[in-house]
Write a structure and sequence with these properties.
With about 230 residues, the chain is an alpha/beta fold. The chain has 2 domains: about 120 residues, Response regulator (Rossmann fold, 3-Layer(aba) Sandwich); about 90 residues, Winged helix-like DNA-binding domain superfamily/Winged helix DNA-binding domain (Arc Repressor Mutant, subunit A), CATH 1.10.10.10. The protein contains 8 helices and 12 strands. The strands form 3 sheets. Strands 2-1-3-4-5 form a 5-stranded parallel β-sheet, with helices on both faces. Strands 6-7-8-9 form a 4-stranded antiparallel β-sheet, covered by helices on one side. Helix 6 crosses helix 7 and helix 6 crosses helix 8.
């Protein structure tokens, strides 16, 4: 497995490299986004780990570029910033997971393993099969969403959240289930990022339609259904 680390702090990147190589990953290091882009265009990576604060182009912009050019490449974002708004910005840029510095290297190992396992499972599944529920349709081949044939633009994380909701239609989903399957981590009860993303998605999917599809079950979680 090849992992690309984009980090301008040589001490941090060296520590990450040694740790990941101890887990038998093949590790490459870039000190800035421009160098990372050169490597990404030459080498097929299995995972990218990027800091947000980078010279020339920051990690947010780099993640957006990666998801446009290599949409299936998982990204873990590292940062000293940890507010809800900052995490949402990272997820909207295409990050699959988000870790706040300082962190325990063993936790990073667990996060990487979980992401790569999910990627492997997804590749084995019939992922290109379209999803349909009433008048809502998801074309997975081109990552586009339509309701009554009107296209709805979603961010990468909103798209992933919708896929999970539709794949579990008419079943109550807890915040813990959504966190584990969409974000790949355990839900932090001290944050409300899942509720924020549900609100974003509900605004785009349900706002202009009489029939609502995304419902909240107070104290329990959420359900994707045409009616309760």
């Amino acid at each position: 497995m090849k992992i690309l680390i984009i980090e301008d702090n040589s001490r941090v990147s060296s520590l990450l490299k040694r740790g990941l190589e101890s887990q038998e990953y093949q590790v490459y290091i870039s000190e800035d986004a421009e160098d990372a882009i050169v490597l990404l265009n030459k080498i097929t990576f299995d995972l990218a780990i990027t800091d947000i604060m980078l010279p020339k182009m920051n990690g947010i912009e780099l993640s957006k570029w990666i998801k446009q050019k290599y949409p299936d490449l998982p990204i873990i974002m590292l940062t000293a910033l940890g507010t809800i708004d900052e995490k949402i910005e990272g997820f909207d840029a295409g990050a699959d997971d988000y870790m706040v510095k300082p962190f325990e290297i063993r936790e990073l190992f667990v996060r990487i393993k979980a992401i790569l396992q999910r990627r492997s499972i997804k590749n084995k599944e019939a992922y290109l099969t379209d999803l349909e529920y009433h008048e809502l349709r998801v074309d997975k081949k081109i990552n586009r969403v339509f309701r009554n044939e009107k296209e709805i633009e979603l961010t990468p994380k909103e798209f992933k959240l919708l896929i999970f909701l539709m794949s579990n239609a008419e079943r109550i989903l807890t915040r813990e289930e959504i966190a584990e399957n969409v974000w790949g981590n355990h839900f932090d009860t001290g944050t409300n990022y899942i509720d924020v993303y549900i609100a974003y998605l509900r605004k785009k999917i349900d706002k202009d339609f009489d029939q609502k599809l995304i419902h909240t079950k107070p104290g329990v979680g959420f359900i994707f259904a045409s009616q309760l």
